[in-house]
Each structure stands twice: as structure tokens, then as C-alpha cells.
Amino acid sequence: IFNQGNAPDRFELIVANAATLGDGSTVTHGIPVVGASFDQGVALAADDATAYVHVLPAETRTDYNVIAERRGRDQDNVVMAGAHLDSVIEGPGINDDGSGSAALLETALSMARMKPHNTLRFAWWAAEEQGLVGSTSYVEKLSQEELDRIALYLNYDMIGSPNYVQMVYDADQSTWEAPVAIPDGSTAIEDLFESYYTKIGVPYDDAEYSGRSDYQAFIEAGIPAGGLFTGAEVIKTEEQEAIWGGTAGEQFDPCYHQACDDIDNLDLQALDVNSDLMAFAMLTYAFSTESVNG
Ligand code: PHE
Ligand code: ZN
Ligand code: ZN
Ligand code: ZN
């Protein structure tokens, strides 16, 4: 199946069980051919007919990352944190990733009240759902000198899932194989997050660096990165229900990438804990990144 993002300009469609709907769109095997127009003179009524379909050119839009920086005494040591501001087209994206975006804004506002030692840089990424477009473009455009100034990157994508488990990106590569090497220093970030959960008595588990969120460009550039995640489309197990409550047999986020990812699609307690932890991590690294960078 092609969509407008990946479709070639022209492709051959062998028609089987074609039908024309009342609105004039055409269905083959029950799949509507959306945004396509058919060459004149091609009869779509018969099985095995060949149609040449022109897919309309992919829509082009300009989108923007929003970057805010709080300069510290040391402008050569930058602590970054990010969340994506866009959602899928299907829904408002409140847990994914309004949760991370809102908590990041609150953290940024509270950091404005003190003078950090290190420089703090907050990123609200564009077009994550289109393939990590904003964060990838941002990192690609940095010079080596600018990359070298970034001590670490913290990612917050989905931190208030309604049927949550508290997860920390797992930098320990002895237990699984990452598609890209996880930069040294990432383990120290994981340890900081985990030590906070331990201190407040909240159980946590590992999340994979699956390459599915905005930390990816940073680890590919060799920058230590970590983050929090409360789960997306994966089904909660009985074991996880015993630890975190919620409902086994249901997705961590039952409204993942759907219209119902609205303001009610949050566990406010998980979001509260993770917002506090986001601020704690930022404040810790505002004063020193030595545990990460040596
Ligand atoms: N980035 C995914 C999305 O926005 C969600 C996700 C986050 C999946 C972190 C895995 C790990 O849909
Ligand atoms: Zn998403
Ligand atoms: Zn997301
Ligand atoms: Zn771990």
C-alpha cells in the first residue's frame, strides 16, 4: 500500500473485485484508493483490468522545531531535553506527546528562576510522527564543534500513558542488542532516573532504544542520551498489572495514535511523578554532568 508520503509517481494496479463507491472513489479488495486519479479510458469494472494510477504529489509543508535556551555560566557544556510537539493526523496526541511537551514547558519555566552552571536547551520537536524529521534535521545541521558542546540529551515521549508502566531507556547493552551503539555515559543517565524512582518508592522497568523517538539522531551522533516512557501499543501483562496496577490484556495506551488520545487519555499520577523526575534530572545536570561525561 502506498500513501502520499512514499508513493511513486505512477504504478500499475491490477484490478480485482473493483467497485466504485457512491462518492466516486474506487475500492479494490476493500481498500479505497485515496488521492489517486485514473487515466482516462481505463475500465475499472472488470477483474484483471490494468489501471495506471497517478498518485497526487505528496503534500509539502514547512514545520518548525521550537528551541529555548537558558544560558549558564558555562556555555560550552549544554544539557538538552526534548519532547515532540506534533501528533499523528488521526488524533490530538495528548499522551503522545502532549504529556512530554507540557512537562518540558513546566520544567523550562521553573529553571528560569535560577542561574544554572551549565547551559540548558529545551527542544519541542516538529514532525516526529513523520519519521523523526525535526530532531534529525536539527542534529544534522550542527557543526562538530556544536555537537561537542552537547553533554547529553534527555527524551520524553509518552510519559502519562493511562495504563502505564514506568520505564527508563535501558543503556546496558549486555542484555540486548541495540541497532546503534549506545554512547558511554547513557548508563549514568539511566542510573539517575532509576535512583529517583527508587528514592520515592516507584517501581520501574527497562525500555528499549528502539529507534522510534527523537533520541535517535543524538545517539547516532555519539551524544549520551536517556529518557522516560510509560508505554504505547504493547499489551500489559498480568505481571505488570501486579506491579503498577491498571489492566492486563490492554495496551499501555489504548488510544495510541487514535482520535481518543485526548485530554482524558492520561494517568495524571504517572504524569506528575515523571514531570517531577524531569525537573530533578534537569536540575541535577544544570549543576554538573560529570557523572555522564567524566
Ligand atoms: N515515538 C513513538 C510515537 O511517537 C512512541 C514511542 C516512544 C515508541 C518511545 C517507543 C519508544 O509514536
Ligand atoms: Zn506517536
Ligand atoms: Zn511520540
Ligand atoms: Zn535498567
Concise overview:
Helix content is 29%, strand content 21%. The protein has helices at 94-111, 133-141, 144-149, 186-200, 216-220, 238-244, 268-287, 290-293, and strands at residues 10-14, 19-20, 26-28, 31-32, 36-38, 50-55, 66-70, 74-84, 118-125, 150-156, 167-169, 205-207, 225-229. A 7-stranded mixed beta sheet has the order 7-9-8-10-13-11-12. A 3-stranded antiparallel beta sheet has the order 1-6-5, with no helix packed on it.
Characterize the structure shown.
Helix 1 packs across helix 7. The chain has a 7-stranded mixed beta sheet. A 3-stranded antiparallel beta sheet has the order 1-6-5, with no helix packed on it. It folds into 2 domains: 10-55, no CATH class; 66-293, Aminopeptidase, CATH 3.40.630.10. Strand 2 (19-20) and strand 3 form a beta hairpin. It is built from 8 helices and 13 strands. It has helices at 94-111, 133-141, 144-149, 186-200, 216-220, 238-244, 268-287, 290-293; strands spanning 10-14, 19-20, 26-28, 31-32, 36-38, 50-55, 66-70, 74-84, 118-125, 150-156, 167-169, 205-207, 225-229. The protein binds phenylalanine and zinc ion (ZN) (3 copies).
- What form results from the Cα inertia axes? globular
Quote the CATH topology of the largest domain. Aminopeptidase
Taking the sheet with the most strands, its summary is: 7 strands, mixed
Number of helices: 8
Helix/strand/pairing class, anyone? alpha/beta
Q: Output the CATH homologous superfamily of the largest domain.
A: Zn peptidases
What string, H for helix and E for strand, traces the elements in order? Answer: EEEEEEEEHEHHEEHEHEHHH
Question: Strands of the biggest beta sheet: in what spatial order?
Answer: 7-9-8-10-13-11-12
Please estimate the helix content: 25-40%
Tell me the distance between the termini. Answer: 49 Å
Report the radius of gyration as a whole number of Å: 23 Å
What is the residue-averaged pLDDT? 87
**Count of β-strands:** 13
Report the oligomer.
Answer: single chain
CATH class of the largest domain: Alpha Beta
Strand content: 15-25%
Q: How many domain modules? A: 2
Unreliable sequence segments: 27-46
CATH architecture assignment of the largest domain: 3-Layer(aba) Sandwich
Named once each, the bound ligands are: phenylalanine, zinc ion
